[in-house]
Amino acid sequence: MRKLEFLIRRLITSLFVLIGVSIIAFFLARVVPSNAAALYIGPKARPEDIERVEKQLGLDKPLPVQYSIYMSELIRGDLGTSIGSKRPVLQELTERLPATLELLITAMVLASLVGVPLGVLSARAQGNFLDVIVRTISIVGVSMPAFFLGLILQILFFRNLDLLPLAGRVSGDLRFTSPVEQITNFIILDSFLTQNWVALKDAFLHLILPAVTLAAYPTGLIARMTRAAMLEVLEQDYIRTARAYGIRDMIVTYLYALKNAISPTLTVIGLTVAFALTGTFFVEIIFNWPGLGLFTVRSLLNLDYPAIMGITLFGATGYVLINLIVDLSQAWIDPRISLK
Amino acid sequence: MSNIQTTSIETSQSTRTFRHVLNVIARDPLSLASAIILVVFILMAIFAKQVAPYPEEGAGRTNVDNTMLAPSSEHIFGTDRLGRDMLSRVIVGARSALIVPIGVVAFAVLLGAPLGAIAGYKGGWIDEIIMRITDLFLAFPSLLLAMAIVSALGRGLENAAIALVISWWPWYTRLVRGVTISLRRRYFVEAAQAIGVSDWVIILRHILPNTISPILVQATVDMGTVILAMGGLAFLGLGTQPPNPDWGLMVSEGRSFILDQWWIATFPGIAIFIVVLAFNLLGDTLRDIFDPRQYR
After folding, report:
1. Report for A164-168, A224-228, B64-68, B73-77: range of highest mean pLDDT
2. CATH 1.10.3720.10 describes domain B27-62+74-290
3. A300–B151: do the CB atoms touch at under 8 Å?
4. Do B258 and A17 touch (CB under 8 A)?
5. pLDDT, tens digit (0-9, with 9 covering 90-100), for A167-192
6. In this complex, is the C-beta atom of B239 within 8 Å of any C-beta atom belonging to chain A?
7. Dihedral angle sign, alpha carbons of residues A33, A35, A37, A41
8. How many whole angstroms separate alpha carbon B17 and alpha carbon A176?
9. In the predicted model, what is the mean pLDDT of residues A28-40?
10. Do B251 and A151 touch (CB under 8 A)?
11. ipTM above 0.90, yes or no
């Protein structure tokens, strides 16, 4: 019952936040720019076009009316038309989403799989050599700019070692030799489903460097936070009791302590998704990865205004949803949270 | 009377804390190294014109006879596509890549901290309004919001800095509000209330001075993130515009030549990494001393 109440309360808060997000986006799109209509047409705006678009956007109407028109378009999924491609922004975004998600999910899974054990190891060996090494790795991870790490990895693994491809999502000749049938647009998944092993291997090799670059920051952060949470838990009485009973160290650490340290770690994993989301902008540029990030940067540089506003709304909505999922899963893991 | 006394006690306490901080930093080799590196970089940025071997090239003057020279004794970091000495570019670039982010954090604190103190001290509907506004700003990934603001205001260093201030202030509002709530019930605040000191004076003289150490810790930790964000905006072409130097922009300019002329992107990239690393190490030490999480 309490859980249901928490769920409903949390959903309502998210809804209000999303309305607020739409207001901020509205202000940035229509109120802050001195000539919003000109921005919407792009750099080649002629005076008669500006007048027409001003009417079309309703810029001559009072602000509350403008906002309600804008909202009714948003609810219908109308984010406007991209200046660059002349196609609906929503379509541009949803088409590119799988590429970005493929990268983002791989990076986050990698960061969690590496970061959590590193944090646990480091906490168990507090003050030892291993602890120092893990702390160094994690602080280097959070201090390294993604746009620089990507370049270093390219020099190392493409130019010097010639092990991994330089950029792109698949090799250029793949669509002639063994084309991937598009089902979900997640290339790894599609080539797996269609048992296209050549493509699977190719796509996997292309994914390694971008995913590692993107994972560096989250890995560092997750390792640090897991370490801190574990240290706190390992000091508690019930752990000492378990140890006094002679229960094996592995069981105490991974079964008893980690269970209670996982909740703060989960918050951090949720938060770092946001960092990773903006990290994709840099990683996608460097590795020429055809996802949302590459589209975002191209839109920013070409002043493709409807696209920029669409991305902002899209990104913020994704972020709000991630936070919601983190909160709900925390309440599910730790019942005390829904009681607050 | 009592006012004067409490202030003097607080001052002596804060001098003691300050000495304590210096002591801890001096004894920890990593923190000491970080502090020294940061001081050197900041001085280098301030006196860039005097320190740089080729100050005009650092600021953007091209030298077509010297394009893409590899590092040598004459040009320790080599030269770029337009023949400019990379060392000078890195030194002059520290202004927009390091000094501007320090300003960004300072402005975010100046904007966010008083709002947080007001929200925490007043409570009620004022608190509710201020905190709901921060919620809205925090609903965006910071860098995405900054990018949207830059695109509304127009590209350039100043607008990028404004955009980052707008996306960062809510964090300080939250922090200071938390500290203020814990301070509100303390005797020195209640005593001031009892003798009829006005709310504004209490906030300014009794609350805000006591929020300085958690703010300082948070600001040091945030510096790294803000430098990365600023460098990122410059890398994407939204911050500093050419021919002005900026580390992020220089990495972006050198990206096309990374496989052959590696030095163009590498040295500015290392500069960002070192400065961010130093701030993070120093932030960790400060956090261990003060632990602002206890207020949250």
Report:
1. A224-228
2. yes
3. yes
4. no
5. 788 777 777 777 777 777 787 777 77
6. no
7. negative
8. 69
9. 74
10. yes
11. no
Distance (Å) from the C-alpha of residue B36 to the closest C-alpha of chain A? 18
Average pLDDT of chain A is 84
Q: Which two tokens stand for residue B4?
A: 């004067």
CA distance A165 to B268: 25
Q: Where do runs of H (alpha helix) occur along A27-145?
A: 36-41, 47-57, 63-75, 89-124, 129-143
**What is the C-alpha separation between B68 and B241, in angstroms, rounded?**
21
* Sequence ranges of the domains in chain B: 27-62+74-290
Q: Which residues pair with B79 in a beta bridge?
A: B85
pLDDT in tens, A68-89: 888 888 888 888 788 778 888 8
Whether residues B140 and A319 touch (CB distance < 8 A) is answered with: yes
- Cross-chain Cβ contact A300/B238 below 8 Å: yes
B252 touches chain A (CB under 8 A): yes
Which residues of chain A neighbour B150 with C-beta distances below 8 Å? 300
pLDDT for the residue numbered B223: 93
Q: Is the alpha carbon torsion for A277, A279, A282, A285 positive or negative?
A: negative
Least confident of A118-132, A176-190, A202-216, B213-227: A176-190
User: Looking at this protein, which amino acid is placed at residue A227?
Assistant: R
Q: How far is B242 from chain A (nearest CA, A)?
A: 14
Q: Are A311 and A93 in contact (CB under 8 A)?
A: yes
CB-based contact A85:A92 (threshold 8 Å): yes
Determine whether the interchain pair B152/A28 forms a contact, defined as Cβ–Cβ distance below 8 Å.
yes
